[in-house]
Amino acid sequence: NAGVTQTPKFQVLKTGQSMTLQCAQDMNHEYMSWYRQDPGMGLRLIHYSVGAGITDQGEVPNGYNVSRSTTEDFPLRLLSAAPSQTSVYFCASSYASGGGGELFFGEGSRLTVL
Amino acid sequence: QQQVKQSPQSLIVQKGGISIINCAYENTAFDYFPWYQQFPGKGPALLIAIRPDVSEKKEGRFTISFNKSAKQFSLHIMDSQPGDSATYFCAASMGSGTYKYIFGTGTRLKVLA
To answer: Which stretches of chain A score pLDDT less than 50?
Structure first.
């Protein structure tokens, strides 16, 4: 099994550009989420989804959009990139219904906004 | 309060020593406390987790100690090895009914050979 796959691994954007970070999982997990990791800040939840067609905001949702059209895919969109969005982004999924289960993370996407 | 406070920020331990990382929380509704291990260039991976109905959980060289009254939990790594050098995150969630995990700020552990 591939687990959680994120693309691209590295990306450089200019301020104002848009892009989509892709996330796919092959474990049939209902729960998927996006985190950003910044030095000294830990992992902060951006958006999450508990199933196809259902999404909700996390701690730091501003500047990001998500959608969940299939169980497998959960893309994260930056509509107008800002330098404050320079970060490492992780997608994670979980099998647990009702929460409190193990999160399976991808290897991350490092984004630099100039 | 939704925060999980983690300390220390960094830790250097000699090979064979004990590494101890501490976390504290405020929200008594949290009922699931995992620790994640992250190697450079990789995503975090679950190391060990505990629920508040027990005070300690041990898996190999890794032990979680949980103090419900103090709202604190800690990770102990016995006989620390250079291969344990990584960043460790504690986390908390309210388990059933929510998928929101609150992570600590991380501890960078270096084990000297």
So the answer is: none
Judge whether B34 is closer than 8 Å to chain A, CB to CB. Answer: yes
- Of A8, A40, A24, the C-alpha closest to A111 is A8
Give the whole-angstrom CA distance, residue B44 versus residue A16. Answer: 30
Q: Enumerate residues 54 to 83 of chain B having a beta carbon within 8 A of any beta carbon in chain A.
A: none
Residue A73 structure tokens: 């895919």
> Tens digit of pLDDT for each residue in A15-45?
999 999 999 999 999 899 999 999 888 999 9
* B65-101 burial: b if 16+ Cβ within 10 Å, else e: bbeeeebebbbbbeebeeebbbbbbbbbbbbeebbeb
CB-based contact, A34 to chain B, within 8 Å: no
Using a CB-CB distance cutoff of 8 angstroms, which residues of chain B are in contact with residue A58? 100
A87 interaction partners in chain B (CB closer than 8 Å) = none
For B41, the token pair is: 């260039």
